[in-house]
Amino acid sequence: MLKQLRQICKELLEEGKVNAVIGYGQDAPGKPAYPIFVTQPADVTQLVWNSHCYNNLAVYLTQKRIRALYPKVAIIVKGCDARAVTVLEKDSQISREDVVVIGMACEGVGEPREPKCNACDVHMPHNVDITVGEVPNPPVTQEQRFAELNAFLKKTPEERMAYWKTELARCVKCYACRQTCPLCYCERCIVDKNRPTCIDTSATLKGNFAWQITRAFHQAARCVGCDECTRVCPAGINLRLLNQSLALAAENCFEFRAGMDAELEPVVGAYSLQDKENFIR
Amino acid sequence: MSEQKAFEPKIVAFVCNWCTYLGADLAGTNRLEYPANVRIVRLPCTGRIDFNLIIKAFEMGADSVLVSGCHPGDCHYTAGNYHARRRWMMFRELLDTMGIDLNRIHFTWISAAEGKKFAETISEITAKARQLGPYRAYREICEESTC
After folding, report:
1. Distance from CA of A96 to the nearest CA of B (A)
2. What residues does each domain of chain B span?
3. Contact B94 A213 (CB under 8 A)
4. Could you tell me which residues of chain B have a Cβ less than 8 Å from any Cβ in chain A?
5. Which of A9, A182, A251, B57 has the lowest tally of Cβ within 10 angstroms?
6. b vs e for B38-75, b when ≥16 Cβ sit within 10 Å of the residue's Cβ?
7. How far is the alpha carbon of A232 from chain B, nearest alpha carbon, in Å?
8. Domain B11-140 class?
9. Minimal CA–CA distance to B91: which of A266, A280, A145, A199?
10. A241:B72 CB<8 A
């Protein structure tokens, strides 16, 4: 599989179809993989593919500095990352003519497997240009995908609030969750706007609540559940729960799963006359 | 003051310029009485009502929040309220997961002709807010954050 991947990337670079391949490198087996940009055909041997390839590389597709250097890129994606690429395309942030998406058959990352991988139904990426490898997509029910959230929602609102108070008290506002998210691509984030200040920028409970609500809601019906925010959080805050609650809302209200179907229009920014309004008097 | 004053809830109403604000205006010109606990914030359209405003209101000590605009089909900008409705559908779920009390956030459609509905809505919300008491949970978040 790795040999095939390297061969594909080599050909793409040799033929001049892309200026760079965004993929994974690794110092030694078992060590965490990290993002690398391969620009020379001879360097494709640096590419790796294994269960340590955590990063969602789609985050680089919208970075202006990088795209100025490499107007045409190939990107190596897992199933979840491919969904992010689809959302970026639907949000008109990238043009697919400039991006070759290489989808890897993925059996999950992490040892032990990350929670997202245990209830993953996109082992084979959708909407990609080239697929490498093959694994079956196991049947996964909605209950399985949202098991953690549903268990959390069984608590009373007071318990939930208490939980977030202890969780968010640890937030140091490093914004790693924002920087690593492929869908947090605003050139100027609302939290950086200070005339007037909308969200308290100090790392206090008040500011942390406002920030995490904002971060989560700005991904409403767009978050693909790659869980990068949760993985990179130095405070170990379970941001996954917030993202999942909005993903579940999008599924229940609009039968929409972000990035699953490139034909479907995004639900945010659109509306329907049939939207339910049982909560409005 | 030595005497303990009875609790009076603070209610922030985010209303659209074209319907609910005029509804409130009509309530006034009709001399309908409603509690003075409400602070009205006028915005161009419900579509303009950023969810951050709701959070901000709680941060600043609101006990209940009302979001109100034109009935479906009546939006001055054709579809602002439809977009807002869709946003709230999902936003409520997020607030619920965060443990924020949904009994303190109200959504209504009030047209420019519904002065009576406006007065009734405010009375109802105020009565409910009185019953719920001060929103201590969110206030604690903000008090712990003085630095």
Report:
1. 28
2. 11-140
3. yes
4. 51-52, 55-56, 59, 72, 79, 82-83, 85-102, 106-109, 121, 137, 140-142, 144-147
5. A251
6. bebeebebbbbbbbbbbbbbbbeebbbbbbbbbebeeb
7. 21
8. alpha beta
9. A280
10. no
Question: Could you give the CA distance from residue A199 to residue A209 in angstroms, rounded to a whole number?
Answer: 9
Contact A273 B93 (CB under 8 A): no
Q: How would you write the pLDDT of chain A (281 residues) with one tens digit per residue?
A: 899 999 999 999 999 999 999 999 999 988 889 999 999 999 999 999 999 999 999 999 999 999 999 999 999 999 999 999 999 999 999 999 999 999 999 999 988 888 899 889 899 999 999 999 999 888 889 999 999 999 999 999 999 999 999 999 999 999 999 999 999 999 999 999 888 888 888 889 999 999 999 999 999 999 999 999 999 999 999 999 999 999 999 999 999 999 998 888 889 888 999 888 888 88
Q: How far apart are CA A208 and CA A194, in angstroms?
A: 16
Residue from A71, A133, A61 nearest A103 by CA: A133
* B98 → closest Cβ in A161, A273, A281: A161
Contact list in B for residue A255 (CB cut-off 8 A) is none
Residue given tokens 């250097």 in the structure block: A69
10 Å CB burial of residue B8 (0-12, 13-18, 19+) is middle
- Select from A161, A165, A246 the Cβ nearest to the Cβ of B90: A246
Q: B62 to chain A, minimum CA–CA distance in Å?
A: 14
Look up the ipTM and state it. 0.90
Residues from chain B contacting residue A221 (CB–CB below 8 Å): 90
Q: Determine, for residues A280 and B100 on separate chains, whether the beta-carbon distance falls below 8 Å.
A: no
Give me A18's structure tokens: 């892309």
Please state, in angstroms and rounded to a whole number, the distance separating the CA atoms of residues A109 and A118.
10
Tell me which amino acid residue A71 is.
P
Residue A202 near residue A172, CB atoms below 8 Å: no
Provide the Cα torsion A137, A139, A140, A141; round to 10°: 150
To probe the interface with A, which of B54, B59, B97, B118 has the most A CB atoms within 10 Å?
A: B97
A278 CB-near residues (< 8 Å, 6+ apart)? none
CB burial of A217-242 (b: ≥16 within 10 Å; e: otherwise) equals bbbbbbbbbbbbbbbbbebebbbbbb
Residues A278 and A267: their CA atoms lie apart, in Å, by: 19
